[in-house]
Amino acid sequence: MRLEKCWFCSSTVYPGHGIQFVRNDAKIFHFCRSKCHKNFKMKRNPRKVKWTKAYSRLHGKDMTQDSTFEFERKRNRPERYDRNLAENTLKAIKKIDKIRSDRASDHIKNKSFSRLKTGKVQRQKEARKQLELGIHLVKAPLALAQDSSLCLPKIKVNVSQAQTEENQPMEE
Amino acid sequence: MWQFPVSDQVPQISGNRQACGNRFDKQQRTFIQMRTVLKVVDNSGAKKVMCIQALKGKKGARLGDTIIASVKEAMPNGKVKKGKVVYGVVVRAAMQRGRCDGSEVKFDDNAVVLVDKQGQPIGTRVFGPVPHELRQKKHVKILTLAEHIA
């Protein structure tokens, strides 16, 4: 039993699924479902079809180079069955999978051009507002008043003389 | 005043492409039955044979089955001549065949290897990929001659 990769969309083909097409030059194409198969028959190039992994890897949307990919390379040499080896491999698969998916999601989130452009400006605005409101959580107001460098630039408001006299006892 | 073009007035370029795609989809690959012309992929001398009987199966032969065929086209000096009635083993079929693990295989064309009544191939070479379903059908000789097993 072997888990193949769909030639078109690069998803895994589990046993019992999909179609294998053998061309006369002996090249074998695996397809996970008829969608990929029909696209292939239409002679579409997976590198140009937006929803495939081939496209996203080509356009830098997905992680391409990582040491975790080395573990998944196809090995044609069958290993003699060893119970310990099998057990360790299963544990390793889980761990490597987790590391790889974490790295891949980091790549998607933190890349400089940010694949998920979820309202960057919006997020910054909200962050600034939160900082202004909750600055007392970061640093005590007295310390802020003394050390002007920590303050956010204050907006100057013209206040009448009577009001400032009232506020002074409150601040203390 | 710019008006939006009505859909049926717009030239249907994509429609054309769609029609081409549909034609590909509609191509139903079926059994190998009487009058099916198959390619011969060994060096027995024949080039094309026409099936006259599928030995097993009511609807027709599939991948790995034996057929009786009549040679329609042959090389000038070969072991078989045009018009001869021969047995053949289907080594490539455009119709998908289910494998024991649940997946399906299909090839690009319909191809046959000529054999004698006992099942031994007449030719000495086999071209192109062959499926490993032949092992179960006890056509081991063809598998050994094959250059690639799918």
UniProtKB/TrEMBL annotation, chain A:
<dbReference type="GO" id="GO:0003735">
    <property type="term" value="F:structural constituent of ribosome"/>
</dbReference>
<dbReference type="Pfam" id="PF01246">
    <property type="entry name" value="Ribosomal_L24e"/>
</dbReference>
<dbReference type="InterPro" id="IPR011017">
    <property type="entry name" value="TRASH_dom"/>
</dbReference>
<dbReference type="InterPro" id="IPR038630">
    <property type="entry name" value="L24e/L24_sf"/>
</dbReference>
<dbReference type="GO" id="GO:0042273">
    <property type="term" value="P:ribosomal large subunit biogenesis"/>
</dbReference>
<dbReference type="InterPro" id="IPR023442">
    <property type="entry name" value="Ribosomal_eL24_CS"/>
</dbReference>
<dbReference type="InterPro" id="IPR056366">
    <property type="entry name" value="Ribosomal_eL24"/>
</dbReference>
<keyword id="KW-0539">Nucleus</keyword>
<dbReference type="InterPro" id="IPR000988">
    <property type="entry name" value="Ribosomal_eL24-rel_N"/>
</dbReference>
<comment type="similarity">
    <text>Belongs to the eukaryotic ribosomal protein eL24 family.</text>
</comment>
<feature type="domain" description="TRASH">
    <location>
        <begin position="6"/>
        <end position="44"/>
    </location>
</feature>
<dbReference type="GO" id="GO:0005730">
    <property type="term" value="C:nucleolus"/>
</dbReference>
<protein>
    <recommendedName>
        <fullName>TRASH domain-containing protein</fullName>
    </recommendedName>
</protein>
<keyword id="KW-0690">Ribosome biogenesis</keyword>
From TrEMBL, chain B:
<dbReference type="InterPro" id="IPR000218">
    <property type="entry name" value="Ribosomal_uL14"/>
</dbReference>
<dbReference type="GO" id="GO:0070180">
    <property type="term" value="F:large ribosomal subunit rRNA binding"/>
</dbReference>
<dbReference type="GO" id="GO:0003735">
    <property type="term" value="F:structural constituent of ribosome"/>
</dbReference>
<dbReference type="InterPro" id="IPR019972">
    <property type="entry name" value="Ribosomal_uL14_CS"/>
</dbReference>
<keyword id="KW-0687">Ribonucleoprotein</keyword>
<dbReference type="GO" id="GO:0005762">
    <property type="term" value="C:mitochondrial large ribosomal subunit"/>
</dbReference>
<comment type="similarity">
    <text>Belongs to the universal ribosomal protein uL14 family.</text>
</comment>
<protein>
    <recommendedName>
        <fullName>50S ribosomal protein L14</fullName>
    </recommendedName>
</protein>
<dbReference type="GO" id="GO:0006412">
    <property type="term" value="P:translation"/>
</dbReference>
<dbReference type="InterPro" id="IPR005745">
    <property type="entry name" value="Ribosomal_uL14_bac-type"/>
</dbReference>
<dbReference type="InterPro" id="IPR036853">
    <property type="entry name" value="Ribosomal_uL14_sf"/>
</dbReference>
<keyword id="KW-0699">rRNA-binding</keyword>
<keyword id="KW-0689">Ribosomal protein</keyword>
<dbReference type="Pfam" id="PF00238">
    <property type="entry name" value="Ribosomal_L14"/>
</dbReference>
<keyword id="KW-0694">RNA-binding</keyword>
